[in-house]
Model the fold of this input.
Amino acid sequence: MKIFLLSFLILTISSYPQKNQLSLEDIFSTDKYISEEVENIQWLPDGSAFTHTENNKIYNLLDIYNHDVESGENVLVVAGNELKFDGKQIEMSDYSWTDDGEFLLIEGPEKEIWRHSRQAPFYLYNVKLKTITAVGNNDPNLRNVKLSPDGSMVGFVRNHNIYITELATGIERAITIDGTENILNGEFDWVYEEEFGLADAWRWSPDGKKIAFWRFDQTRVKEFYMIDEMFVYNKVTPLKYPKTGEQNSIIKIGVFNLVSGETNWMDIGEEIDIYIPRIYWTNSSDKLAILRLNRLQNYLELMINDTKTGEGKTIITDTDTCWIDVDKIKAKFLRKEDSIIWVTERSGYRHAYLYDYKGKLINPITSGDWEITSVEGVSESEGWVYFYGKKDTPLEQHIYRVKLNGENLQKVSDHPGWHTADFSPGCKYFINEFSSVRHPSKTYLHNADGTLIRKLRENNLLALNNLNMVYPEFSTFTTKDEFRLNYYMIKPHDFDPGKKYPVLVYGYGGPGSQRVINKWDETRQLWHQMMTEKGYIVFCVDNRGTGGQGKALKNLMYKDLSKWSVNDHIEAAKYLITLSYVDANRIGFWGWSGGGYLCLMLMTRANEYFSTGVSVAPVSDFHLYDAIWTERYMGMPDDNVDGYKASSVFTYAENLKGNLLIVHGTGDDNVHYQNTMQIVREFQLKGKQFDLMLYPNKNHSIKGGNTRLHLYTKLTNYFLRNL
Done:
């Protein structure tokens, strides 16, 4: 009888389907865990429908479909295989419509320049006649191409100058003529693009009769040399890269009048050592708004300039004892009245306020001990302001709306997680893409009040059902000085509290950043899942100085970027050691970029807690990083000698202990691999052992081909061998 029961039990267990284990090839060489998105969305001017692209698997080309909001009908409007110029197939990467729907501006294959900038050939497609003409003499290196508001012209940047072409006649016209390698019109220099998140440096006026643009003179900016070793004789490419404390480009803001053919230069003051991180057209082509930021980035002015005379007047100022964030939209100008939505952290939390053109505060729009992320849309006819915010929890981003007078605040996204929206003109509808740590991104179509119209993409990836999925568990712990820190922990699916587990800590730690959030991350989350299958607990904590909880907390990072990140990761390690199931001798850390920097700091300053580290693309000393980012958080080098020393890994190199792997791409234009070479030299001079992996000509992302598979194979094996 016992034998029968045992046999029955074995047969019963074996009859259950066995779950798969993840492999590196699954994650990095297949697309079975990749979410499908609704790509290249373009709303029709009246908001009744939107177009988007879908990949045609027969031709491996993008087709354009029209999705009707009311009926849900999805109709093919342009077949990608029909787009040919001079008999050659156009491989469309993006597109935009003229307002009348008669022309389609088609972007050909993109070529990446830096993080945000791209260049490509562009074409104009007559939808009715099905004829195609090339923009800019079929130059494959056009940048910042866009249609005028009325769809009658197309503008672009070529060879550092701005041009426009009339669609009706095909006549091309130069807006600027002085562009060179050092004089940039309508395009940004490297540091503006990287640190202010900008690539397109010119703007059509609302009536399409003027063009406002940035002009950069980067003659005085020192060159950093990128070296390509993949030739018999290496190739050297100069990059204008202002390191901290060095000279930046000289900026001018011009407004070109298409009728008179003249450029008026806006008065932005006599001081040239400043930043102009944003410009905005107001509700009139006679007024241009300009954000002027001082070099220390703690004093911001909103100016309104007369585009006819260039004269400007400051109407709103913003100050901070440390720095001012301008990475989010700081101003939005209403079209039907002389009012401005201004976003500031002056209350201690980022909120929106309504001002008039004289700089008088009309009323706060949002308020409280929580922060908005950015203003995303305004329905002036209904009086609603739509924005992203973290009112309910700093771990999630939701979509909210509130009346312009600050009343009737409503959350219009309902699922837990991280939400972003694409609003229709007039904000009658929005397309919501959201995810959480428990599910990949989903895309839904909603009415403005958040009610669901239909689901566009569900992304119930069947392959995930065949895994023993485990998910981050969010919680907090209290430091010795009574501060509560947010963290997540991922445990193996067969977790046994009676066992001892090694812990793999992941982190970043930089000012204003957040890693402990309820959001799906396909690559990192799946790799962490795989590491739990190999018997590791994965842990992540947001130290003091990170984002989502107000400006005072972020300001703790000012002038020493290592203090609280190192302190709170030591606190995290101490907390982990108190858990009965954690092996105190087997706590490791890995991070990328700022997280790579943090890893070096932990392996030199906290190696009694962290025995193994992997540092990817790290900064090692902030004298080697760019002016805008570094000075924002550290001040000028001569004014903060002690802070720069305290934040340098060189200062602690002699204390390195444990197992350390450093990884860097030699083509990294952002964090130059000289950072790795210089800390390698310091470790060698101090007689310290470590491991090193270089990726020839790979940039800060270290990707392309099988690079990610190789990289994560290296990381996996390193931790398996050493932790």
Notes: The chain has twelve helices and 47 strands.
